[in-house]
Each structure stands twice: as C-alpha cells, then as structure tokens.
Amino acid sequence: MSLRPFLGLVPLGHVDLLVLQHLCTAITEFLSLPVRILPPRPLPPHTYHLPRNQYDSTRLLEYLLSESHDEAFRVLGITAVDLCIPIFTFVFGEAQLDGKAAIISTLRPGGGADNIKPRQPIFLERLVKLSLHELGHTFNLPHCRREGCLMGFAANLEILDQKNIELCEYCRILLADYFNTVSDL
Amino acid sequence: MLPHKKITILVVDDELSIREAFSDWLKQDGFEVETADDGPVALAKIKERHYDIMLVDVKMPQMDGITLLKHLKENDPDTAVVMMTAHGAIQDAVEAIKLGANDYLLKPFELEELSLTIEKLVQMQTLAMENLILKDRVASITRFENLVGQSPPMLKLFETIVNVARSDATVLITGETGTGKELVARTIHARSPRGYSPFIAINCGAFTEHLLESELFGHERGAFTDAKFTKKGRLEMANAGTLFLDEVGDISMKMQIDLLRVLETHEFTRVGGTTTINSDFRVIAATHQDLQESIRRRTFRQDLFYRLNVIHLEVPPLRERPEDIPLLAEHFLRRYATETGKKIDSIHPEALAAMRRHAWPGNIRELENAIERAVVVGKSRQIKPADLPFVFAPGGAEEAANLSLEDMERRHIALVLAAEGGHITNAAKVLRINRNTLYEKIKKYGLTP
After folding, report:
1. For testing the chain B interface, which of A53, A87, A105 should be mutated: the one with the most B CBs within 10 Å?
2. CATH superfamily of A6-181
3. Min distance B205 CA to chain A CA atoms (Å)
4. What is the pTM (predicted TM-score) of this model?
5. Confidence band, pLDDT 50/70/90 cuts, at residue B18
6. Which overall architecture, per CATH, does domain B8-126 show?
7. What pLDDT is recorded for position B281?
8. Distance from first CA to last CA of chain A, Å, rounded?
9. How many A/B residue pairs have CB atoms within 8 Å?
10. Residue B400: per-residue pLDDT
11. How far is A137 from chain B (nearest CA, A)?
C-alpha cells in the first residue's frame, strides 16, 4: 500500500461501479492527485427525512466524517439517493469549505427527478463536474461568477451542463496557492 | 456568485439545522455570515454592528419575526430584510412586506430562489454604497488642502516625499485612520513629473468585488445587466498620472491576482471586452491595516505586497506630534471661519492646552471635525474650551488626560452619537469615518446608537 495520502471515493449505499471508476480516473487526471475507491458504506437510517422522502446531505457528511478514513486527506461520498438540506428542496451535493468531506448525488444528474434520462456520457460528465466542484470547496474555493468556471453555482442541470470541466484562471491560481500552503498534498 | 467581501448577512432562525444550512451555503458564496437563534439575540447583535442583509424566520418562540422586523426598521433601516415562512403561511409574508421587508421566501425553497433573492439585495446595497461614495467624493473635492506640520516626524516625512516624488516607484503609505494618507499621496503626485496629469483615487474597501473590477478596469456596453454604456476604468483614466489605491488591504483575493498582473504589465482589458489597453500610471497605495499580518492570515498576497511596498511611508498619528496641534487647529479655524462667515479668529490658550492633552484617536480628521464644530457652536470671537466636544464630556479635559486611548475614542464616539441622536450616517459624517468603520467601533466598544 502506498504511503502517499490519497483522495477517497466512498460509495454510500449502492453505486454503479462504472460511475466510481469513471470518477476515479477523471478526478485523478484533473487534480493530479492519487484517488482510490474505498469500501462502500450503508446509508444510515437517521439521515433519511421521511416527510420529504430524501436524505439530509449535512447529516450524511457528518456520517462520512465519523467513519475513519485516516489515510485519506479528502473523502467524497457518492450516493444514488436524492439529497436535501433544510432550506432547499434538493441539492446536487454538499461540501465543507476548507474541510475534509464532500458528497454528491447521482440521482438528479441521471434524470431521476424528471425522468429525462441523459445519454451516458452526459450523465458521467455531470458527475465529474459536481465532484470536482464540491471537492473545490474542500480546497477552500468559494463559488465563482466567471462564465463557464467549474466553481460557478449551478442551480439546475441546464446551468450544470453549460459549465466546463475547467477552472477559470483565478480559481486555478487560488487552488495552486492552496496546494502550495498545504505541505502534505 | 462572487465573494461579496463586504456584504454581511445575519440569519435568524430558532432551528439549528436551518441556521447551519444557511451559514454553510452563504459562506460558500463568499458572504460573511452570522446567526442568531431568536429575536432578542438578533436585536442584541444589530445593536452591536450593522448587517447588510437579514434572513428572518417568521415563527420563533420568544419574539416572532414580524416583531423583530418592526424593531429592525426602527434601529437600522438600511438593513435589507428577507422573511422566511413555511409554505401555507403566505399571509405572514404579505404582512412582512407591508411592514418594510424587502422580500420573502417560502421554506424549503429552490436553489435558484435564494440565489436570485440575495443577488437582488446585493445589487440594491451596492447602489446605496455607490451613492455614499459619490457623496464622499464630492466632499473631498471641496476639502482638499495641503499637508500641515512642523514636528520632526512630519518634517522627515516631507523630506521623504520630496525624494519619493522625483522617482516613479510604487509607494505604500501606512498609518492610522484619519492621519491624512490620501493627502500625502496627493502631495507626492503634485510634486512628481506626473503632477499635471490626473490623480485618480479609488477607495478599494468601499466596493464589492464586482463593482471594484468595473471601476478599475471599466466595462464594455452589455458586459453585464446594467452596463448600458461603455465606461472607462480608473486604470485607464490614470494614464500618464497617478493611481491612488486607498484601503488596498481590503481587496479580495481574486482582485489581488488581477491587480498584481496589471501592476506588472500595465495592460488590461475592460470587463466584457477583448481589446488590450495599455495605461502608463504610477501607483500609490495606502492602508491602515498591518499587511504583514494579513499575509500571515492568508488574506493578502505576499507577491502583491512586495510589488506595492517598493517605497514605504508611515504617516505618524497626531498623538505622536502634539506640537503640530496648534498649527493644524489654526489652519482649520481659518478655513471654517471663512466657510461659515463667522468672525472667530483665535483659540483660547486653555482650549489649546485641552487639545494638546486630548489623545486624538481619530487623528487629524477628528481635530478638523472638533474645530468645525467649535466654529459652528462658538458664540464669541475665540474658541473656548467649552466649545470643544471632548472637553464638554463629563469629567472634562483634566480627567481625559488620565484616560487610555481606547477610552477616549469610546467616549468621543459616544458623545457624537448622542449629539446626532443615534443617527449612524450623521455620526459617521461628523466623525469623518465611513459607516462600516463606525459600526465596527460601536460593536468594539459596546455602544448603543
């Protein structure tokens, strides 16, 4: 086993292996960091919100953090269920700003909310964008207004699809600065 | 959204999960967020500082959101308020709007709704701030005056200014609020070979990132919703002259990257434009902040600091040059006596002695204000100790001599607030500081507006 710290992908509940492998490759390529798929974890019942029939993403993030992933410097939870937070009807994902954990849902990018199923490449591209966006928050990048930037806020799938899988020049510099100040990356 | 560095938001909701969700979400958008779990806590917080936007839940156990809204509109009408209510309670939202709330949200809401609501309020706040800045600018034009001083630190500063003015090097001016950093910058410019070209000043701390970008770089028509005309930026206007970047320590991390690049190349494009523009300007920057400390806290780029800090000038606070006080007092007396047409031509020796004993936390700006007030309220040909606001304070100047600097500042702010009936904008005008600075000081000293 490599001693170098890595970024861990944690399936929460059942997640398609193809999705995990695709994200693993795409994140490795984008961030030039080692990425590993970690053993799946069940979805804890206390994170389920019965009245909304959704899972509370903040509670899932807490759960993700409580599971020991000491060797991983960042963990990205991936789940097939729909996520929400108390103020929003749904969220695509959530992250801790300058923290260790982030989470994304594959449900809405896969057309699970409106039954408009996208082609597989589009679905996977959406997941890559969401994963990198949420991970960007863990590297202390806030939302960005530059057109097309990966750190731009996407309120719906249409906006998500318009984003590029790339950071604007400012976010690139800020991310590089962040990596320079964190010695163990 | 942009990191709206200057926009502060207070979330008032009795549910912890809601407060945390808002806090996390809005922080990702770059806002400064605080929370309160009930109306009384929120009221205590708004007495301590100003918030640009408040998100208030209607249903709360101790004090409901509508009651809080009423208090808020009495205490701090400048704060934009968004009420939040559960679906099915629309009548609460209607009542809130009637009472002056700016908008409402029905919980839970779509991602887009919150984003659009906040964006609208930010634009509203930005316009209000722009208005204040324009007023400040008009005031500064009418009050431009040369540096005054004969104390050793000031004489040394004058000497340095003469030398610095000859070169074209970038200058960083530091010093406490009210010491006259802009005046020093204007003097350097006036004595430099660029003296007949424009001196373009911009207070970087007073703009949101978006507005600062547009102010500095200009914008093309249609670059954003309100860009109806092409506008030249300050960088372009400063061509052949001097660009004065006041409160440079307040610039966001992203704008620091832009600024660094433009300082290196003197090339830039307008917002929404593609043509590269060259501008030959000299940069003088100023701040009251400790930039070394900001670098340690990772809020200021070290490379930008080195780029700005080619020549460093420190403007001494007034308390370190008490011998200049009579000179400055006479100077301001002449100006305000002329302006008001009042026949006041001297200062009583006891008033001068009280001025020498005073700590002047607000520096020259505070002294100027004290003289202006004395001229306005004075009833004889001479300024008397009783005409000075700080001597008028309970205990008088004798007691004041034993107070710490902070105590004096606290007392002075309290006096001005009382004199202005707690009106923040008027008090800030009298103190010659901006409203945000006043709010910070009110919070620091636990004062009640």
Report:
1. A87
2. Collagenase (Catalytic Domain) (3.40.390.10)
3. 20
4. 0.62
5. confident
6. 3-Layer(aba) Sandwich (3.40)
7. 94
8. 17
9. 78
10. 57
11. 7
